[in-house]
Amino acid sequence: MTTASPTTSPTATGHVTIVFTSDWGVSTGVGQAGRTHSTIERSGDAPVVRGTVITGVLREQAMLAAKALDGQKDGKWTSFALWLFGQDPNSEPGSTPHPRHVLFTDATPASKIPVHDTVSLSIDPTTGTARYQFLRFTERAAAGILTGTFTLIDEAGLPLSVQATIDAAHFLLGGAGLMVRGIGSGRSGGDGECTVVVSDKDYVTTNLPDEEASDALKRILANRDNDSPTYSSKDVATVADRLRRLTRKSLQTIPGLTESLAKNNSHDIEIPGHRQGGTQHQVGIVDGSAATHSGGHHVILDLTLNSPIVSYEVPFSNEIRSLDFLRGTVLLPWLHRLVSSKKRGENKAVITNAVTGGHLVVSDALPVISDAEGFPVPLTLKRDKTLPSNSPITLYGDSPEGTNRIPVRGGYVFFAPKEGDSKEPGTKTQGWYGKPPLRGRQTTAINHETGAASKGQLVLVEALPEKMRMRAHVWVSDELWEAASISDLLGKTREARLGSRKLTGTFGSATCTLRIETDDERESRSRFGNAGSAQLTSAASSSADGTATGEGTTTSSDDQTVSLWFTSDVIARSAGLGAGGTADDLIRAFRREGIIVEAVGTTSIRHRRVDSWSPADDGPRASRLAIQAGSVIQVHVSKKDRDKLLELAPFGVGELTAQGYGRFVVDHPLLSIQSIEVTKAKLKHFVCEKAPKGGEHK
Question: Which end of the chain is less packed: N or C, by CB atoms within 10 Å?
Fold first, then answer.
């Protein structure tokens, strides 16, 4: 099929313009003590309409429009609407839900829109009259214009390329937008009246066809910094009327819809571990043969979150809480789509089977502060029971037991690129300690039959904050490097959609860049197997008795005792039925890699449940029990096998290592310190002021 010119035909992206002609607000469902009973959704100080709300109102109207186009029967337009917005699990008994193929961003003000409080009476549901001495204070935003965008995606999450499907989607979305009469709470009382324009054109310009509408739009857009609107309600109504007429004119011709689209199109994105499809990265077989992954290319994946992101954790009742890192399971499908986007040469099988064939391995993405990658704090360390608010925090290692110290049970440690980089005014520390604070957002499920909130389905989503920086490590085999021309992908910023709830438009957007690792990062990897470029200074990297660390303790001419610090969760297979995760299970996992180790000394191991969701089954997968990141174990090993440990560390031990599980560090100086002073990490340390602009969608 020939794609029409982008100057005359719509593309896979477009614009959403919402013109509110009355007071409006999308309620959060909560209030502020002593101020108001109901607040509205905001992004910073500006009122917004979330992408989830836009999706809901357009879906309702699109289904009505599709039925009208089909003659009130379920036909091709109804099937297309279901495909576009996702299969509604409540539409048909036993129907299988599948992902939507249109994503909406949040709609934000085109100019400053003031927010004010309104006063009303509370109605007694029993008597239908006003409650005695009960006034309600509700936040409302003034009339104004908000803008957002939408993207049409295919099954792989890439922008649509079939022009006929794009044309049909623009037509259906444009018609659905014209049918929307109100958005937000209080619509029965006249609030939220609006005009919604969904188009390939950005109408928020001063180039409207007639002078009156153009002048009105100029006055609205000029209200950048004023607390009170400099435009009138007539200006807003004029712009809304003009946009409605322009949209109706663009929708005069009904496009053909010849493509047959399946109602059920679910995808199971579980990626098997690299050893399930071969032994490409196996360090050694049971008899201790040489490693086979000494080649390949190590690259760095830098991420900046453009919106909050949810990394799936076990839900707690009606609370969806993100992990404080992104699992490799989240990153691997996107990376595979990236390298598969252009199949070059004759070796296409290497690209297609990059994961199952062991050609592509990715780590978890961990938080970054001041270009220092965080590592889960070793569970062998202790801290003071009460943390100071602003002064440096002391982490204790081999120093004598204190009466007011407790084991560290979470968080990350960041080594400053150079001494003093992490200091606050009047302090001098060697890094940071803490974890990124999650940002909560309350939402509710919508009943598609009534259009109202579903009873008992209020949900709190806690996500990683936007503008946060993260970093992951990627290994690519020589075969995949050549077959997919990976060098052409380096240094380019790309927008990705990652994590749970990424199809809502509110969550999951990130800017990603692949790059070659620096000399310091390469040196650190060769020294410890898997560690960041910045290390402890010599003042803090000596053990309690003054001996140097970073090298294994020698017990004989050939045997050593080394410390293994796990920097990601480990899934170790049990010798019998049930979940694995003991020190003996770890020992057996190393033996399966051809490395003979023997556990000695005290181990510090904690466990964590690993859960995931299967879109194909529309249900949770079986839970796994993993050894938690930060666990530490001491092992007795020969010098030869210690070298194998250094080689294995960036790839991991146990199951699902292609997805980031099982990574560890060998004999890191942090495991032998007496104490180290670090700065308490706050939100300002994790976020960057200005996120890089994303490039092409991949």
Answer: N
d(CA 544, CA 499): 43
Domain that holds residue 210: 13-27+40-114+142-250
Domain boundary among 225, 250, 275: 250
Please report where in the chains the tokens 């919604």 appear, as a residue: 196
Q: Which residues contact 256 (CB under 8 A, 6 or more apart)?
A: 164, 168
| The residue to which tokens 């001491």 are assigned | 634
Tokens coding 629:
């990141």
| φ and ψ of 288, to 5 deg | 85, 30
Shared domain check, 322 and 222:
no
Q: How far is CA 221 from the centre of its chain?
A: 33
In DSSP terms, 104 is beta-bridged to 150
Domain total of the chain: 2
Question: From its phi and psi, is residue 467 left (phi > 0), alpha (psi between -120 and 50) or beta?
Answer: left
Same domain, 95 and 150: yes
Please give the backbone phi and psi of residue 118, each rounded to the nearest 5 degrees, phi first: -115, 155
Q: Are 304 and 468 in contact (CB under 8 A)?
A: yes
For tokens 């974890």, name the residue: 435
> Residues 365-405: pLDDT tens digits?
999 998 889 999 999 998 888 776 777 888 888 666 666 88
Alpha carbon distance 82, 459 (integer Å): 24
**Does residue 643 belong to any structural domain of this protein?**
no
Tell me which residue of 431, 396, 377 sits closest to 675, measured CA to CA. 396
Distance, in Å, from the CA atom of 77 to the CA atom of 66, rounded to the nearest integer, reads: 5
The burial of 508, by beta-carbon neighbours within 10 Å (0-12 exposed, 13-18 middle, 19 or more buried), is given as buried
* Residues 6 or more apart whose Cβ sits within 8 Å of residue 249: none
Q: How far apart are CA 92 and CA 448, in angstroms?
A: 12
Q: Which of 211, 217, 249, 259 is nearest to 236 (CA)?
A: 217
The reply to whether 240 and 362 lie within a common domain is no
CB of 473 closer than 8 Å to CB of 649: no
Among candidate residues 562, 564, 544, the one with its CA nearest the CA of residue 630: 564
Contacts (Cβ under 8 Å, ≥6 apart) of 290:
284
Segment 325-368, tens digit of pLDDT: 999 989 998 999 888 876 555 677 888 888 888 889 999 999 99
pLDDT in tens, 531-541: 665 566 544 54
> Considering only CA atoms, which of 686, 695, 151 is closest in space to residue 466?
686
Rounded alpha-carbon distances, angstroms, from residue 272 to 276, 280, 662: 6, 14, 14
Q: Is 18's pLDDT higher than 50?
A: yes
Q: Residue 205 — pLDDT band, cuts 50, 70, 90? A: confident
Three-state secondary structure of 77-115: HHHHHHHHHCCCCCCCCCCCCCCCCEEECCEEECCCCCE
Here the tokens at position 542 are 């000596």
pLDDT value of position 397: 84
SS3 455: strand
Total residues belonging to the chain: 698
Burial 621-633 (b: 16+ CB within 10 A, else e): eeebbbbbbbbbb
